[in-house]
Amino acid sequence: MLPMPRDIFTEPADVDPDTLNNLGPLRRLAGRWRARKGVDVAPKPDGPERRVFLDTIEFQPIDPQANGPQLFYGLRYNVHITTEEEDITFHEQVGYWLWEPATGLILQTVAIPRGQVALASGTAAADADMFTVSAKRGETGYGICSTTFLEQAFRTDSYSITISFHADGSWSYVTDTALQVEGKQAPFAHQDRNTLHRIGKARPNPWAEILARRKAG
Ligand code: HEM
């Protein structure tokens, strides 16, 4: 007897519309954040260059997202980075952080205007104080895709980010991006780290806002 095909279409019923209530390990990220002492190590012709940068990051809740039976709660984020020395943007990044309460799966999508995207994954418990997600070039599930120039000159073989929450409400990240730079033997460890402090709260997700307005009449 052939096994019954699994139901890939039916979505969960009674989904809680309040995303901020269902973000698990991501809930402490919701809101707006700033930091002045980020440290970047990047590849330059004469070797690694260390620079200090200013970070502004915003995470706002999105409506619950179902893939058939799979249900994610998440945040849309925007990272904007500058330096004291220059007005031009130093680094920009947009994407989503998603958490699947049923399994503890965490996803981060990364899109940077260098012509590069990554989908990183990991797992964490709802009350985790620290978690890591990672992606690998060449993987179709949780991989890295880059424009041809980067593939040739700065091949990005792996990416990971570790986030840690602190008792005072701040949080830190460390990203490790392995770059195979053209003409170099060893991979380059492109590392970035910072500790963020809150400058604003998150708004409710759109669906929760609609229901709250209706309730208020
Ligand atoms: C806080 C986060 C980050 C900062 C501040 C940052 C900054 C930089 C800087 C200053 C460079 C040197 C080239 C330049 O001056 O534009 C660079 C190169 C590069 N970064 Fe990042 N980066 C960050 C995160 C990432 C992430 C997450 C990825 C990919 C997943 C990435 C991929 C690359 C690549 C492929 C290059 C080589 C391109 C080149 O040097 O022209 N970076 N980054």
Written overview of the protein:
It is a single chain. The chain is mainly β and 217 residues long. The protein has one domain (19-216): Lipocalin (Beta Barrel), CATH 2.40.128.20. The chain is built from two helices and twelve strands, in the order E-E-E-E-E-E-E-E-E-H-E-E-E-H. Strands 1, 2, 3, 4, 5, 6, 7, 8, 9, 10, 11 and 12 form a twelve-stranded antiparallel β-sheet that branches. 22% of the residues are buried. The model has no long low-confidence stretch (mean pLDDT 97). The structure holds protoporphyrin IX containing FE. Protoporphyrin IX containing FE (HEM) is lined by residues 40, 42-43, 53, 81, 90-91, 110, 112, 114, 116, 118, 150, 154, 156, 159, 175, 177, 179, 190, 192.
Q: Secondary structure elements and their pairing?
A:
Layout: E1 31-44, E2 47-61, E3 65-67, E4 70-82, E5 91-100, E6 105-112, E7 116-123, E8 130-136, E9 144-146, H1 148-153, E10 154-165, E11 171-181, E12 188-200, H2 206-216
Antiparallel strand pairs: 1-2, 1-12, 2-4, 3-4, 4-5, 5-6, 6-7, 7-9, 8-10, 10-11, 11-12
The structure holds protoporphyrin IX containing FE (HEM).
